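Na(+)/H(+) antiporter subunit B: structure, please.
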Amino acid sequence: MKSIILQTATRYLLPILLLFSFFLLLRGHYYPGGGFVGGLVASIAFVLHSFANGTESTMKILGYKPLSLIPIGLATSTVSVTVPLLFGLPPMTGLWFEEPIPVIGMIGSALFFDIGVYLVVIGVVLTILFTIALND
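Here you go.
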């Protein structure tokens, strides 16, 4: 679909939706949200861009194939789950840095787990949808 209205709207909505997905990601380890919901919102932003401008144009924006995000996200989540074992703690025990970071707040292993989930969700959703779109 090559609608000038949708293309113009997407130009403004893509950065706003990506910023909102990042907000949901950072908010997730204190309140509802997190990696899964943030990843879905980011995927929706790229799918909307794909509808307006074509899948090839969206792939150029991403720079990498979405499939490459899946192992990176899995590795990030796995490391965040297993690091407490090095300290003699059970897996998935929350570890936190001593000092809060301005704007972001306290950073801990839960955030890194959410980042891994965020990347996996974006990778899976975009791989599936772009594969379907390119085969039509």
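Notes: The helical segments are 4-27, 35-53, 55-62, 69-86, 109-135.
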